[in-house]
Amino acid sequence: xxxxxxxxxxxxxxxxxxxxxxxxxxxxxxxxxxxxxxxxxxxxxxxxxxxxxxxxxxxxxxxxxxxxxxxxxxxxxxxxxxxxxxxxxxxxxxxxxxxxxxxxxxxxxxxxxxxxxxxxxxxxxxxxxxxxxxxxxxxxxxxxxxxxxxxxxxxxxxxxxxxxxxxx
Length: 168
Known about the structure:
The chain is mainly beta. It has one domain (21-146): Jelly Rolls. It has 2 helices and 12 strands; from the N terminus they run E-E-E-E-E-E-E-E-E-E-E-H-H-E.
């Protein structure tokens, strides 16, 4: 029927402290509101909590922009091979094609709000020596997430209580 738009997701209100979380021994704990049974079609939103020295993922670039806001603590953002210190309330707009990863820094946990498009799911995982210092680089350049994370797959994700609020 012309002019009718079908609803492909649903409204959601949830407190960050009550949101589902999962942890992995080699990367950030993810607090993710998105329901598994009905993923959001347009925008991915989560909070990732990193301990000092812990990366949030593998160094990569995407075909779409992303935005990041440090909610708590301190981290190192590796952007196009350069390290940048980010602290609470620092905002990073990441244009499409910019290589990046976050690594926890400072004396305690760091939480970053991460927002990105779901419209294009194309990633590139380059090899990067700076990211490799933190176990955050792919071993070989690839566009396949399974290849980029091959050595992390042996350690499974675990459901965990939300670590939020931090420092409180």
